[in-house]
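Run: sequence + zinc ion -> complex structure.
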Amino acid sequence: MRLLEYIIDANHRALAGDQKDGIDPADYAQSLPLIALTCIDPRLNRFFPDILGVPEEQFIWLRNAGNIITSPLSSTMRSMALACAVKRGREIAVIGHTDCRIRQTPITALIEYFKELGVSRAALPDNLTEFFGVFASEQQNVMRAVDHIRASPLIGPSIPVHGLMADVRTGRLEWVVNGYDVLGRAAVPLPASKQPAIGKALDEVSALGDFKLGEMKFPEVRIGEIATDVKLKVSQAKETVESAKKALRPIPSAHPPEPPPIPPPIRPQQRGKWGMRD
Ligand SMILES: [Zn+2]
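>> structure
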């Protein structure tokens, strides 16, 4: 079985009571490290990487609100590209989850939450759905993210890109997109009309140097040097943040208490024992 097929099979077996199998990294040297993009939801903290059964040192975890990718060149996309290029990630999995608060938050409520934080409606973009990439279906959001990754010129065509859903209560994983099935086919870039305009807007705002899609030019600086620019912008932004902090006040929880924690179905075995199996 290939890596993700093994992971899902082991996940289902673990939920059925078989807690024996972790991943033996030696068996999947060509597929690890695994890059995973998940939501920021803290309820996921206890699951990863345990429910995947991969050792921590082979697990590269990217997170953003709603595991959203807004375009093939978005900020998250760039982190993912560097995770492949610098950290040598071999496979990518976008892992959405059930009961996602990002999906459940209506735009009117979002505007209200920002208002409570001292951010007026006028300070936000007109189209908040597009700007934040909010979505109506967790599964469709995962499919869209997988499409963007496969269409990205920053990701090599040999890297499988999977889409999964995790049950936030039990940790059960289900396929949304089997990346092995589509690996052989050439990635078809999304038509410009289907790419959220906000992706372009964000790219303009956060452009690193003179990166241009058409010419694929990257700035002749090391990644760390960009921090100098960022420092300047951070110091300029600090004053704004400080004044915003003054307007902050505790916000009562908008959600009911969480259910008690459930042990993850797969416990990685102790370091050095990955190869041991019954
Ligand atoms: Zn979420």
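>> summary
The chain has nine helices and five strands. The two ends are 18 Å apart (CA to CA).
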